[in-house]
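#structure-requests
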Amino acid sequence: MKKEVRKVVIAGNWKMNMTPSAAVEAVKETAKLTDGKTGCEVVLCVPFVDIAPAADAAKGTNVKIGAQNVHFEKKGAFTGEISADMLLEAGAEYVIVGHRERRQYFGETDETVNKRARAALAAGLKVILCLGEVLEQRQAGITDEIVSMQTKLDLSGITAEEMKNVIIAYEPVWAIGTGLTATPEQADEVCGVIRKVIAGLYGGDVAESTVIQYGGSMNDGNADDLLAKVNVDGGLIGGASLVPEKFARIVDAAQK
């Protein structure tokens, strides 16, 4: 972390978990356990049906609510999809785009990820943009090339001014939901590669101020070591975010 030039963001991704009633209780408990922890931004990205009740429960607390996906059109014949304006009115401030599960199971490409990110930014949402390599790519030694390409494609058409509302989440696909985690050194190295690409696109000042999270199975046991690295500015937390006590311990690690 480099708190003197950029904020730290700890964001939870609940995935397809928590009914609205359960969400309210989890948000309240998370808010209570992280109250006064001003050293980082605390975000919970929840299923669509949970956004409004979660946002109500988070009012007056330090917890921000986000969504897990957004469509790139404002309205139309897109059954099952949700627009950025709908997310905003429901109470979301953030939205995840390009998560590995969206890419793997629902056919997301860098083109559609870019379109979703641009639509979200245009509507006034803050974007957590996910990217990362699969195991075969890491084993082939082309991690840097893959994440560099993804960064350029996913940020296409996004302005330097809009980058103030973009967080990059580096999530090595081989470490999502597998229990595997990149070493702190690996995470720092790849986040540094992403930062270098951003510098090439937008200049050093934008690169230094852009928040780059690690999103590959960060938990309350490894957060201290990962967050100690200079290029790791927070985490996109999966399973641990469903347990307020564990999530709060990660927030505590971000205070250091």
